[in-house]
UniProtKB/TrEMBL annotation:
GO terms for cellular component: cytoplasmic side of plasma membrane; cytosol; ESCRT III complex; late endosome membrane; multivesicular body. Residues 1-25 are annotated as: Disordered. This is CHM4C protein. Coiled coil: none annotated. It comes from Burhinus bistriatus. GO terms for biological process: late endosome to vacuole transport via multivesicular body sorting pathway; protein transport; vesicle budding from membrane. It holds the Pfam family Snf7. The keyword Secreted does not apply. Keywords: Coiled coil, Cytoplasm, Endosome, Membrane, Protein transport, Transport.
Amino acid sequence: MSKISKFFKGGGSAASQGRGGPSPQEALARLRETEEMLSKKQEYLETRIERELAAARQHGTKNKRAALQALKRKKRYEKQLSQIDGTLSTIEFQREALENSHTNTEVLKNMGYAAQAMKKVHENMDLNKIDDLMQDITEQQDVAQEISDAISSRAGFGDEFDEDELMAELEELEQEELNKGMRDVRLPSVPSTSLPSRPGKLLAILLIVNLSFSAASTRKRAEDEDEMKKLAAWAS
């Protein structure tokens, strides 16, 4: 059995078993500490690689043995650096997965609290009573609408009279007034003298007659007579 397996199955889990396992916050804190430690180790290895490379260049062909030793150390450091890169990637993936799991756990917990609150709110609600209440509300709304329609409808006073008969009677009255006005119009007498030789006076007389008929329906009797007198005086 490897040391890693012993660590997870044996002493490494003894402390966590006594506490029932670490909390997500504790595990995230440990992972961040590990990432910080490995990042510092990376910086150290990168510095050593640069030094060994500089030493190999310095010795060059003058001291091939020392130059080769420097290059070997550089290779070892590069291998360790590559391993740390892989470890950091694994830890980063594990940390992100743990953060997501913790977030999902908190979300589910809060959703559970909300579900319990809704259940508590609905405990005192009876669906049958709600249906009865909604039915009562609907009925009262219908009653209110009927009352509103009754109030806003036009009163039936005078509806027993036929509107067509009233219009016919009104037209008869207007016709009687028109006939009366025509009877009251006095036409001018035909002159005994011969017609004037000047066409202007003849046109004036015809104009007088025309105005007499047209004034019967549009003007008052007093205005008609006054206008006719003026035209007669001008024509003579």
